[in-house]
Amino acid sequence: MSASARAPLIGITAHVTETAAGRKVVAAGEAYVDAVRLAGGFPVLLSPVTGAAAIESSLDYLDGLLFTGGKDVDPSHYGQEILNIKVAPEPERDAFELPLARVAVAANRPVLAICRGMQVLNVALGGSLWQDIPDQLPAALHHYQKAPRDEPTHPLEVTRDTLVGDLLCGINGALTQANSFHHQATRALGPGLLPVAHAPDGLVEAVELPGHDFVVGVQWHPEHLTTHSSHRRLFEGLVLAAQRYRSRSDIDSR
């Protein structure tokens, strides 16, 4: 099969977990893998690595990137100390994903960043986070739902005539519904990032980076909502952008 005919390779950030004493595995949620496949991409799990050369080489074989959810970005990366015991950093992932996000954006590589992934994207580009919504914003919505993951529980106000707006809204206007599984959120936006969706309490629920082909972050978990065409289109948008990236790379290499 020629390079142009194969499905775009989408790198999915994974984490290392211990399933038994002394036995570690590299893992990512199956729903991310399924969503990429459903959109026409070929999912590839990315194990955390360190060192600039190793991180940059992670991009060499990929056409696009999906930054997944997980625990918290260490607040030291945006100049703060840990607020309380609910803040649970993942230093191994931070050491890999923050520089990976910077390299990917600099290379105009298609990026979809989900939940923690959106927070990684924002911090990588110089932004900050609300470390614990219930503690710091007690009047905000409850953003960690008890309902099943495939059930939307709060509305989103989406900015029309944006990349995210075009993908999510279709003929349904500027309102859509999302699920919610986070206790942190974007506070100060990284330079260049544009807020393009908000929860009813005003918290930013989606960002994009104008001037780039496809750099999108969403705070909810669309991988569990792919039965809804609007959320499925986020993954289709990533795969289509990855296809365009590979086509340009094929032309440049001739």
Sheet with most strands: strand arrangement: 4-1-5-6-13-12-11-8-9
Q: Structural class per helix/strand content?
A: alpha/beta
**Count the helices. How many?**
7
Cα-atom Rg, whole angstroms?
Answer: 17 Å
Biggest β-sheet description: 9 strands, mixed
Briefly summarize what is shown.
The chain is 30% helix and 22% strand.
Report on the structure:
The protein is of the alpha/beta class. The chain has one domain (9-252): Rossmann fold (3-Layer(aba) Sandwich). The protein has helices at 30-38, 52-57, 91-106, 116-124, 133-136, 163-169, 229-252, and strands at residues 9-13, 15-20, 23-27, 42-46, 64-67, 111-114, 129-130, 154-158, 175-178, 185-186, 194-198, 204-208, 215-218. Helix 6 crosses helix 7 (229-252). The longest helix has 24 residues, at 229-252.
